[in-house]
């Protein structure tokens, strides 16, 4: 088959490789001038490997997905740590026993930490919103210190206006584990994400065209037996039912000369101060040695490239209208965060892409 793949991020590149391995001819197009989607990384002018579109930390519990990507990259073992700043002081985040002890000047054991949460939580009979999730788990004071304003900045909405799943992603701990993730496999591509994508797309059956709008390719005379679409599903259908809401980000990159280390951990959250949500220092993530350092600040915004589907009932309802059209397509497969209007982690996108390929090959 001649297959067109729209998007050179995780979903598109994994599909491209697997379908090429099965003997199909693949054309991958992307509107940007580079591969790797939002995972794109590059050395800045000072020689430090930075993530152009904000930090991408790889983690998974899936041995299958970790082994799959291991064919295309070596790994640098890295466990991400985050601190949240409250009243000018840094605390471990997600909230753990040390957070409670430092914040409230206590000396709780694990058992006492469990009792502490039980005492302060506001039980909810039905947990519908992100606010419900956090209040049900850690109570109002911790909610207001760590979650409320961060969520408002990140989503432009109050936590009471967002579905429960947003906050459910962040655990609460009674021990002193200060890792952001607890997945079995936590590592960063040793030579960067872009190199990993170059390896994924390096196959004689794969051609790549960058700075190319998919509509221009579809309007060509070229015939495709199948299309894999990884962009925003509403754009595919010319916004027939209206625009699906997405949250975007603006990135402010900065290089700090003669500063070997800017902050104590990879990412510092600023829930209550400034217009940005967090600062990430890339050398923590990559293990790079350098006499200077590079950081990025993230400013959430409604304008710009779509990053995060906004999890609200009305948005889900609109998506279902587009999904109904997509379900009737016999020669188009929709896969990925934007095409499925779903907040996927990177490993979940890889899994979704592998499943999509199985379906395409099964149809043949």
TrEMBL record:
Protein name per its UniProtKB record: UDP-galactopyranose mutase
Recorded family membership: Belongs to the UDP-galactopyranose/dTDP-fucopyranose mutase family.
Span of domain UDP-galactopyranose mutase C-terminal: 145-343
Enzyme nomenclature, EC number: 5.4.99.9
Pfam families, per the entry: GLF, NAD_binding_8
One GO molecular-function entry: UDP-galactopyranose mutase activity
Cofactor(s) named in the record: FAD
Signal sequence, renumbered to the chain: none
Organism whose genome encodes this protein: Acinetobacter faecalis
Gene encoding the protein: glf
EC class of the enzyme, as a word: isomerase
Keyword Transcription regulation: no
Keywords: FAD, Flavoprotein, Isomerase
